[in-house]
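Exercise 7. Given the encoded structure of a 149-residue chain, write a plausible sequence.
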């Protein structure tokens, strides 16, 4: 019986920590994402801001890759940087996008779904979508914010 408890505990521990963001299945296809934002020279007002956003619907440099529908970069109320694909997961088309408002949400103009982006998750809070926004990795190194898949 003791070995059964240990096996069950190991199984639960493994299941709890094996799930990670990269395993989320999304209706938004995996497109290349690579963006570097200099927060001192190019976007100085974005650094250390709260509830602010930047939209990238077209490449700025030839080396930029902006995912399927473009990239929404957001600073949450916690001061962290978050990045999402702008394509609405309910519509799953690269030309139907979500746009942020001043309430820490992103809204799809076509289906009307409201996504909460203020905590970096992108959960739908109202509307027909059940899937979260596709999220990208962010990492700050010095003055440069790196965004990748």
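Solution.
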């Amino acid at each position: 019986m003791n070995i059964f408890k240990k096996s069950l505990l190991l199984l639960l521990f493994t299941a709890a920590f094996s799930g990670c963001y990269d395993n989320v299945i999304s209706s938004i296809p995996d497109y290349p994402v690579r963006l570097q934002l200099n927060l001192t020279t190019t976007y100085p007002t974005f650094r250390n801001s709260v509830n602010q956003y930047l939209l990238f619907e077209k490449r700025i440099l030839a080396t930029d890759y902006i995912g399927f529908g473009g990239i929404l970069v957001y600073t949450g109320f916690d001061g962290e940087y978050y990045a999402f694909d702008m394509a609405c997961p309910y519509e799953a088309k690269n030309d139907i996008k979500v746009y942020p408002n001043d309430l820490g949400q992103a809204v799809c103009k076509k289906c009307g779904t409201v996504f909460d982006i203020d905590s970096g998750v992108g959960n739908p809070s109202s509307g027909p979508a059940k899937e979260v926004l596709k999220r990208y990795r962010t990492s700050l190194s010095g003055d440069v914010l790196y965004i990748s898949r």
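Remark. Residues 8-21 have pLDDT under 50 and may be disordered. Students should compare their own answers with the one above.
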